[in-house]
Amino acid sequence: xxxxxxxxxxxxxxxxxxxxxxxxxxxxxxxxxxxxxxxxxxxxxxxxxxxxxxxxxxxxxxxxxxxxxxxxxxxxxxxxxxxxxxxxxxxxxxxxxxxxxxxxxxxxxxxxxxx
Length: 115
Known about the structure:
The chain has helices spanning about 40-45, 105-115, and strands at about 25, 30-40, 45-50, 55-60, 70-75, 90-100. It is of the alpha+beta class. The radius of gyration is 23 Å and the shape is elongated.
């Protein structure tokens, strides 16, 4: 009967594959989320309300300018820690800055004058 051994001990192996979530990325016990902002918002300031994986609302903002490496950490709003389920990782929010695909000559001149 296959690999059965009468009275023997056998190992059972599971292969678990993590399914990608459309809004969140797991990083250990931390949960990461990326907010898209346009270049104007990155330079002048922005405000968003983000929902955590368990439905809590988090307000996040920056008065500008916002660097592409911007991150804001919210302690204990991430995933439960496997060894200590009463503790949680952090909820980390980053930004992705959307740049314009084209600029007119006049827009380029105005930007050069301003910056």
